[in-house]
Design goal:
Cytochrome Bc1 Complex, Chain D, domain 2, mainly alpha, 99 residues, binds heme C
Length: 99
């Protein structure tokens, strides 16, 4: 009985460890949750500028999101809260994929 439970536990942990990181670095989901309110769900722009076809590079976006950019207006003067470097990379790639 105990062994069965333990085996079940192992399977659950394995599934979680595979599924969770994949979810955490979903750029589209991060964009929806953290950027769409200002940049629009399709990156067409709202309070913030349109991001479709932006000339800024993915690296510049990652930098701005993780370190902040003093030359920018809020909220991008400061790093965006609750964003891991992995999220920033995924969301930057997502932004660059918008057409
Ligand atoms: C509270 C509103 C707000 C949120 C949330 C927000 N932005 Fe912005 N964003 C802006 C504003 C306003 C600007 C313009 C800043 C400026 O011109 O100095 C901007 C500028 C940018 C730019 C530069 C565009 C260009 O062409 O120079 C990028 C890239 C960008 N945001 C990406 C993101 C991403 C990715 C997220 C989510 C992780 C995000 N932003 C979240 C308001 C927001």
């Amino acid at each position: 009985m105990r062994t069965k439970l333990f085996a079940l536990f192992l399977v659950v942990m394995l599934v979680l460890s595979v599924a969770l990181p994949a979810f955490a670095v979903d750029g589209a989901a991060t964009f929806k949750a953290k950027c769409a309110a200002c940049h629009g769900p399709e990156g067409q722009g709202k309070i913030g500028p349109a991001l479709k076809g932006t000339s800024v590079t993915a690296d510049q976006i990652i930098d701005m999101l993780t370190k902040g950019n003093d030359a920018k207006k809020p909220p991008h003067k400061k790093p965006l809260s609750g964003l891991t470097p992995e999220d920033a990379k995924a969301v930057a790639d997502f932004v660059k994929s918008l057409k």
